[in-house]
Write a structure and sequence with these properties.
The protein is α+β, with helices and mostly antiparallel strands. The protein has a single domain, classed as Alpha-Beta Complex (Aspartate Aminotransferase, domain 1). The chain contains four helices and six strands, in the order αββββαββαα. A six-stranded antiparallel sheet has the order 1-2-3-4-6-5, covered by helices on one side. A hairpin with a 2-residue loop joins β2 and β3. α1 packs parallel to α3. Keywords: DNA-binding. This is MmcQ/YjbR family DNA-binding protein. InterPro entries: YjbR-like_sf, YjbR/MT2646/Rv2570-like. It comes from Streptomyces chromofuscus. Pfam families: YjbR.
Length: about 130
Amino acid sequence: MAVPRNALKKWEKVRDFALGLPGATEEFPWGDSVAKVNKKVFVFLGVDDGSYPLGVTVKLKDDITHAHAMTAPGAEPAGYGLGRSGWVSIPLEPKDAPTTDLLCDWVEDSYRVIAPKRLIAELDER
């Protein structure tokens, strides 16, 4: 199954943004790409090989931000019980999927929930 180009470009930009945050690293547990800070996942990026629809999963603690993310087409609480902790899975392939800028804002919010204070301070200095 071919990945829609606009969704792939969006995914690549979000991935680059996530990995550009202070202390961020990419790992591949279970074969999926994740961005971690301080050995903790702050965004699940999935796979970009077309075997599964493109999407991102972020942890959003702010109620308003979380509710906004849940209005995205196809968005749902993350599986494996993660949804109960504020994790939201957001597909990138729907025509009216969130913009890259909005997705990056949510990735940054997720990062801020997970990252240690010293790295958040570093981010705020940028």
